[in-house]
Amino acid sequence: MGWLRDHLFAVSMVVFIVSGIVSALVIGYVGLLVASAFWSGGLTVSFLLGLAPSLVILAVLLVVTALSGVSLGWAVLRRLSLPRGKRLYPLIERLERRNSKLDTLGLSKFVEPPEPSEEEKMDEVKQQYVEGTINEDEFEREIERLTSESSERDDEPFRTRNTRRSEREH
Predict the structure, then answer these.
(1) Whether residues 26 and 48 fall in one domain
(2) Which DSSP letter does residue 78 get?
(3) CA end-to-end span of the chain, whole Å?
(4) pLDDT, tens digit, 9 for 90 and up, residues 101-145
(5) Which domain holds residue 155?
(6) Mean pLDDT (whole number) for 8-33
């Protein structure tokens, strides 16, 4: 199921185009048969009953075309950039928790707000301090934590290089 979800757009597009073309060909074929029977005067009930297998095939093709069209539309909608924000994400996440079928769509991943930058996190802590929701000690601890996290991430490539170098030496 993972492969299909990753390639839903391409698969839906191919199935939609192929089934649409084949449907058009079958409609044209049946139309030619009916028109030729009508002009020759041989349009009878038994002739129309003989077309039943073609009509069943046409019905199946039209259903496949419709379903692949809906799937194609869904794939296009998933690729659109949806507004990301703190208001929409909790609502969709709550709906997904309540309904397991919605959870399989994974809409919350598409509207999840991006991780705030280091500067935004610092600004938020400063704003909390100015508003009085945290005291000076908490403010200093948060600033220290944020700066230490930032320096650890900055050191990560250096540590990775050193780890690889030491592994090659052994």
Answers:
(1) yes
(2) H
(3) 42
(4) 777 777 777 677 777 788 888 898 899 989 999 999 999 998 898
(5) 118-169
(6) 91
